[in-house]
Design a protein that fits this description.
mainly alpha, 3-stranded antiparallel sheet, 8 helices, 3 strands
Length: about 190
């Protein structure tokens, strides 16, 4: 999936690995986490498949810059991926795997866990406040404002799902507190 994200970015315009990393951080990071090393590893794989090409730009007093561009076969791959009927709705959610087994810990520890989840999500939701500015900036950079509508749609999905996680964590806290009171009354 990361390779297709990189192809999608390069389809807008050529970029260095660093610029791809910055773009991920500023626009895609709220729904797809990519480390710098993963991006560079994917770029090598994309280059081997001839989905991207690399141009070396000499720089004075700095390492040479590697600028990546999508190739015609890379564009074909991107369009095939976009046309794929697989909606990608399969869920692998590490937090849910952990929550499933939280009954092995104390109620107090688990309340703290959900408070931490809630706080982390609230901070992330707050960070999404700058996303509209990034959307406008990148739309200007690539000169294709019509694409910004789709970026706004993904940003709204990220905002809503983060709010859902906050609400869910609070519900979990409430349930644990209620159950703890109920069971402590019976003791």
């Amino acid at each position: 999936m990361l390779k297709h994200g990189i192809l999608g970015l390069l389809n807008y315009h050529e970029m260095t690995g660093y610029e791809i990393m910055e773009t991920f951080r500023d626009s895609l990071n709220y729904f797809w986490d990519a480390k710098t090393s993963q991006i560079y590893r994917e770029l090598q794989g994309l280059e081997q498949k001839e989905w991207v090409s690399k141009t070396i730009v000499p720089q004075s007093g700095k390492p040479d810059k590697k600028v990546y561009s999508i190739t015609a076969t890379g564009q074909e791959e991107l369009l095939q991926w976009l046309a794929d009927d697989d909606l990608g709705l399969r869920v692998k959610t590490p937090i849910l795997m952990k929550v499933f087994f939280l009954g092995e810990r104390s109620v107090e520890d688990n309340i703290r866990y959900f408070e931490s989840v809630k706080k982390s999500c609230e901070m992330f939701l707050k960070s999404l406040g700058s996303v509209p500015q990034y959307i406008d900036t990148y739309a200007d950079i690539i000169g294709q404002k019509e694409k910004a509508l789709y970026w706004q749609m993904t940003a709204e999905y990220g905002r809503r799902s983060t709010q859902l996680q906050i609400d869910w964590a609070q519900d979990c806290i409430n349930q644990l507190e209620e159950n703890d009171e109920h069971f402590s009354d019976k003791r």
